[in-house]
Amino acid sequence: YRRPVTVTVTGAAGQISYALLFRIASGDLLGPDTPVRLNLLEVPAALAATDGVAMELEDCAFPLLRSVEITDDPMVAFDGCSVGLLVGARPRGKGMERSDLLEANGAIFGPQGAAINTVAADDVRLLVVGNPANTNALITRANAPDVPADRFTSMMRLDHNRAVARLAGHLGVGSGEVRRMAVWGNHSSTQYPDLTHAEVDGAGVVDRLDPTWVRKDFIPTVAGRGSAIIDARGASSAASAANAAVDQVREWYDGTEGDDWTSAGIVSDGAYGIPEGLVCSVPVRATGVGYDVVRDLDVDPFSRERIEATVAELVAERDAVRAAGLI
Ligand code: NAX
Fold this sequence. Notes:
- The chain has helices at 15-26, 47-59, 74-77, 98-119, 133-142, 157-171, 211-223, 225-233, 239-254, 301-323; strands spanning 5-10, 36-41, 65-71, 83-86, 125-128, 152-154, 178-179, 182-184, 192-194, 199-200, 203-204, 262-267, 279-286, 291-293.
- It is of the alpha/beta class.
- It has two domains: 5-154, Rossmann fold, CATH 3.40.50; 157-317, Lactate dehydrogenase/glycoside hydrolase, family 4, C-terminal (L-2-Hydroxyisocaproate Dehydrogenase, Chain A, domain 2, Alpha-Beta Complex).
- The longest helix is centred in the C-terminal third of the chain and has 23 residues, at 301-323.
- It starts with a strand and ends with a helix.
C-alpha cells in the first residue's frame, strides 16, 4: 500500500455524495493501492444525515478506507486535503435572483478557498461540482492565492460523457470507440459540445453527420440533458455526476491515454481568446501532473460563435461576483 491520501468531500449528505463516497472508498478514485481518509464537510443541519452515510460506509468494510471525519468546519475538513471534491452548493430557490445565487455561493466557496489556502496539502487538487461550478471554482481560487492555478478545475466531465454517449448511440458504436470529443465553456445550457474533431476508429466523423442533426438534436440534447433527467427522475443527476467526478479525477492523476483528449474546466491562460483567469472548459490532455490545453485546433465559424456565447456567459458571471466583492 501507498500512503493514505486525504480526500475532502463537501455536501457529503447530498445525493451526489451518496453515490460518490462509496466509489472513493472502494478505490475507484485513486486506485486499488491507495488507502483513503475521508473528510466530510456539511452544514450543521445535515451532520446527523452525514453520520448515517458514515455508518453505511463503515458497513461496507472497505479495506482501503482508513478513517471518516465529519465536520461543519472547512478548516477541519480541508486539513491535509490532497483531493477536494467541492460538491455542496446553494441551489437556486424560488424567487431567487441570479445575483442572490452567486452571493450565496460566494459565502460558501470563499471560506472554503481560504481554508484550502491555509490547511490543504501542498499537492492539493480541486474539482468543483457544485453549481454554478465554473464560477464557484473562480471564487475558490480567488480565496486561495497561494495554491497554483492549475490545481483548480470545474466539472465538465458529465457533459463530456453525455456528448460521447450521445454520439456513440447515434452511430451505433461503443462509447469507448469515440475519441477527441470536446465540450467548451460553461456547465450550463450555453455549453458547446463540439463534434468537429471527434473520431471513431481513428477517422473524423463530422462529415458523416447531418449538420441539422448536430445543431438541432445533438447540441441541445447534450446541453439540456440535466433538465431531461430532472423531468424523468424527479431529481437531478446524481450517480452519473458522481461517476463523472471519478472519471475526471482519475484521468487527472493517470493521464489521458494515447493522443486522445477530454474536457475540463480549467483556469484559462488565454488560449482560444478565452479571457485569462476565467474557469472555462476546453479540450485538455491530462499529463499525470496537470492539464495541457489542446492548442491550435481549427475552430470553424459556427464553433467560434458558440464558444464566444458560452464564454460571454462566464464573463458575465465573473463580473457579477467581482461587483459583489466575492473575488
Ligand atoms: P443536494 O442538495 O442533494 O446536496 C447538496 C448538499 O450540500 C446538501 O446536503 C447541503 O446541505 C450541502 N451543503 C450546502 N452548503 C454547504 C456548505 N457550505 N458546506 C458543506 N455542505 C454544504 O445536491 P446534489 O444533487 O448532491 O448536487 C450538488 C451540486 O452539484 C449542486 O450544486 C448541483 O447543481 C451540482 N451539479 C453539478 C454538475 C456538474 O456537472 N458540474 C452535475 C450534477 C449536479 O447538478
